[in-house]
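User:
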Amino acid sequence: MKPRFLKSLSAVFCVVFLMSGPAPAAMQESGKAPVQDVWQPAKTPPGGTSWKLLETTRLNDRTDPKTRMIYTKPAFPPAIQALAGRQIKVAGWMMPLENGARQKHFVLLAYPPGCPFHMHAMPNQFIEVYAAVPVRVDEMNPTVITGTLELTGQDESGIFYRLRNARPG
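Assistant: Predicted structure:
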């Protein structure tokens, strides 16, 4: 297939998709369509740390003028700084970094993964996890993890949070 044909086919698909949306009868009396936000972070487990709190860390970006690469450092608020070196419990979706049904090194995402080829998460929306014991992969449900929180990212690696000696639950 030629690229031009693919572009045309994509455009037709988009128009058909948009036209198949909810009819005006689905509008509320205010004239606005009802909105349900399905993009929610994992629920905070009892006694756990919320993603709402973890997302309060600000991102300080800079662009390298030679490479045009964007580098990010965290600005941790006092509430996050107070958690450094402490054991926390958090729930999220597991993104495996190893092969196998159980993982010792993985990323815990605040939000369900949207694309299998890359993360759409900001640095304050995921935690790199080093588990003390292998953790079972569950691709459909959030996983609850407990571990010691490290605050990282001053090296501009783009990783703000790391859990060490982590365990399920």
